[in-house]
Structure formats: C-alpha cells, structure tokens
Amino acid sequence: MNKHRRGELTDRFVYVVDQLNRLMSGGHWVRLRVLDLNVHQVNTLQVLHQNGPLRMSEIADYLGSTQSHATNVVKKLVDRKYLNRKSDPEDRRVVICEITAMGKLIANRYLELVTQRATSISEAWDEAKMESVVASLELFCNEEEASRHRRDSDPG
User: Alpha-carbon distance 67 to 59, whole Å?
Assistant: First the structure.
C-alpha cells in the first residue's frame, strides 16, 4: 500500500474511532455530571471494575496518562467513596486502588447506558452487517491488547 493511501485510511480510521467514542458516550456524560463525575473518573472506575485492584502506575498506564494525573483522579474518587486506597503489604511506598461497592454501582450504571446505546444503534442491522462491525471492532481490540502485551514484555 502506498504512503498516500495509508495516510487516507489512517485519517478515516482516526475519524471513525473518534466518532464511535462520541456516539457511545453521547448524552451519558450529562447523566454522569449529576453524579459530579467526568470522563477521566468514569474511565478510572471502569479500569478498576474490569481489572480489580491496581497500582497507581498501572491505572495511569491503562488511561494513557501520567501517574500524577491518575493520582488526582483517584483522590476525587476516594473522596466520593467510589475507590479505596491501601498500601501494598510488600512495599509500603506503593499505593493500590480498588473499587468500592458504591463505585461498582456507578460503573455498572455506565455500562448499562453504553449497552442500551449500542443495542439501539445496532437494532436496524442485518446479520451480515452486525458480523462485519463486530469482527472489525474485535480486530481493533485484539490489536490493542497485543500492543499492550508487547509494551509490557519489552525489556527496554
């Protein structure tokens, strides 16, 4: 594939990913604002809900942010009793964060909103279109996971 064509496809891909993000979160942030949560806080809750307790550095890695930013986000979630922080018994300098029962309720509510949105969008699709979209999104997610694994296992 030539560079020009790859550039065009990359631009389209980035645009579609951005649109998908907007589509899936559209309107939900307004509902979450009532709970006084922002996108970073919701993403942090989701990361901990899906992965269990994590170190602050791992949260920052999942979110693609700095540890300082993750610490600020976590502090606000701890203040709201959505997360707990504790010291690692192996190394007291390391902070481990875990989601609380209240945080799980919020994370589950957000997942319900996303599920409702995805379901309503896909209802009009026939089986072939649904299969095509799901296969493409699975490819995207699998590549992201493989990329994360390569980064994590890279010794340098």
Answer: 8
